[in-house]
Amino acid sequence: MYIKLNKMLEDIYTLNSDELNSVIDAVKLRRNQLHSLDAHSFKIGDKVSFKGRHGVIEKATVEKIKIKYVLVRTMSGQRWNVPGSHLTPIKSKEVA
Question: What pTM, to 2 d.p., does this model score?
Answer without folding.
Answer: 0.71
